[in-house]
What we know:
globular; five-stranded antiparallel beta sheet; alpha+beta
Amino acid sequence: LISILILSLGACGESSNNPQGDVTIDINADLYKTGDSLSLIAQQTLLQNVATAMQSGGTEYAINFCHTNAFNIVDSLSKNYDVTISRISNKNRNPNNLPTELESQLLKDLENLKLKDTIVRGNNGVTYYKSIKMGLTTCLKCHGPVESIDPKVYEIIKHKYPNDKMRIDIRST
């Protein structure tokens, strides 16, 4: 399972999370530094909000909070830093995180080559792809193996995400 945080760093404020046409892997150190810094801010902001939601009402409340607010949090960060931030996964829970054909191939390449972070330069600008780690206890309460998820939480997940490919993948392992 690979999930990726995407930062589209377009030229002159133009950005796209779907580079098309000829694409190349970029090794520009400044772009890596910018992408890594902004992705860290995005991940920390999401985790802080989830942790606050969990403290306010537990994991069940946090699922509803994420379902309703995660997009708005990411969108406000995108606007604040003039980039496009999104998430994709080859086993997506949210249908909005479905990768394009190009991104699906990139996910496979990242997994096969054991790459963590990659910059792709395409016709629509520069995109920084960063692997999302799911090792924190907070994350695993919803994204861990089914047998470790509280049954009430699991029912909410099934209800909110009926086509959850992550859940299907976890069950089959």
